[in-house]
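In this supplementary section we document a worked example of the pipeline. Step one takes a protein sequence of length 512 as its only input; no multiple sequence alignment statistics are reported here. Step two produces a three-dimensional model, which step three serialises into C-alpha cells for compact storage. The input and output of this example are shown verbatim.
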Amino acid sequence: MRTGLHRLLAALLLTSAATLVARPPNVLIVINDDQSWLECGAYGKSSVPTPHFDRVAKDGVLFRHGYCSAPSCAPARAALLTGRNFWELEQGAIIQAWLPARFATLPERLTAAGYHAGYTGKGWGPGVKEPTGQRDDPAGKAWNAQRVKAPRKGLSPIDYAANFKEFLAAKPKDSPFYFWAGLTEPHAPWGPDNHKEIGVDLQDLKLPEFLPDTKGVRINRANYLYEVQHADRTLGAILRLLEEAGELENTLVIVTADNGTPVPRAKANVYDWGVHVPLAMMWPARAPGGRTVTDFVGFPDLAPTILEAAGLKVAPEMTGRSFLPTLASKSQGRVEAARDFTVNGLEWHGNLPPTDIAARMIRDDRFQYIVNYSATARGEESESARKPAAHFETHSQRLDTLPIIRAYPDRPDIRPYYDLILAPRPREELYDCVADPDQVRNLADKPEFAEIKQRLRARLEAYQRQTGDPRITGEMTLFTETQRYVEKRKAAGYDDDARHDPKADTSKQKTK
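The serialised model returned by step three reads:
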C-alpha cells in the first residue's frame, strides 16, 4: 500500500511538473536606466554589491556579452520591444521622435495571445505619440498609480514594487502575465549626498581610464552608484512579490539596462561603456541555472526569444534570433558558434548642429571596429567656462568630468580627457578590447592591424546591407528629416504638444 501511495504521489508530482512546463510562462523584464554591465557584481568588476542581480545570474544564466542596439534609451527600448535593430524602425531609430504603429511590440503581441500585460516606471521613450493615433503607448498599459510618499532626492516617486503587486492582483486567474518594470534609476539627476550612503570609500571606486581621477568625479560616480544599489534593492522587492504570489517558478525573468553609464564616452557613444549592458535571465521551470554564456546577445534577440518561450510564432520581419534553445539547455560558454559578434550604432542623442555623433560599430570577442559618419567636434572650448588655474584644487573637489575639463582644458593632466571626450573622432576606430578594455588607444591607423580592420569593416557593411541600414543603402531622407524634427523639439523644450513634421513620413522608407 505504501508503495502504491508513493507511486501515486510521484505520478501526481510528474503531472504537476509537466503541466507547469506546458503552461505559457509569465514574462518579467526589469530594465534599469543607464547602467553598464560592469556595474553588476556578478561580472566581478563592480564597485558596489548587487546581490539581487547576482541571485538571478546564479540561479539562472549570466550573459557576458549582452548588448543594447543603441546607447540611447528610446531606440534601444524600441529594439527590445520589436525584435529589430534600431535603424530598421524609421522614426523609432531616433530619441524624441516616435515609434511607428506598424512595428508591433511585445505587449501588443502577448496581449493578443491572452497575456495580462502592463508596465511601471519608464516604458518606451522619451518621445511623442505616433501621429496616426493607432497606438497609445508602445510599452502597453501603465501601472504607475502607487507612489512613494517621500523619495530620497534624485529617486523616482514611482513605487515600482507596489505597482507590480497591484498589477498581479488584477491578473485574471488563468492568464499568464507580461510585466515591464522600467526603473528610472540610476539615471541622473542624483542626490548630492548619496555618496555618503554607498558603504564604499571614495578611493576604492573603480574609474574607467577615460575619466579624470579627481574627488569631484569620484563623488559624482558614488552618487550614481547609490542609485545602482537602489535599483538592485527594487529588483529584490519585485522578486519577493513573485515568490509570495507563487509565480516565480514559471516566470521568465530578464534583468538588463537600456544603455550604458551616463558619463562622457559611455552613454551616447558606441564604445563598450555605452552599449555593453548587464543581462541575466532566470526561468526555474525551464532554464537550468548556474551557467555563464559568452554568446553575443542583442536587444533585437529578446523579443523572438520571449515569443518562442510563450509558444507563439516569431514574426518573420524580426531581425533578432531566438536563443531559447541556449537558455533552456545545460550548456555554457560559447553555445552557438554564429553568435560571435554584435552590431550597434547611434544616430542622434540631443546634439545640435554642427555636432554630429552618428556611428556604427561591430564587436567580436577581442576587437571593436567603429565608423563615425562625421568629423565634427563633440564639444567646443568656451572662454566663459574657463576658470583661473589657481582655482583648480577647489573646483576639482566637486566638479564632474565635463565641467572640470571645460574649466581647465589646458592643464597637462586634463587635456588628454578633453581630447578623448570632446575632440573630433576619426572616421575609423579600432580597439583591442582585451588589452584596452576602456577603449582609449585607437589602432585603426596601425599597419599591423590593417587586416583585422578590413575584416571587421567588411562584416559590418555586410550586416548593414542585410538589414537595410540607411547608412549603407544611402536612403537617408527619413533619418535626416526626423533629426530636423527632434532638433526643433529640443529647441522648443521638448513640448509634447508640438506638431509632427509632415515630411517625416513613414512611407518614405521601405521596411527591410
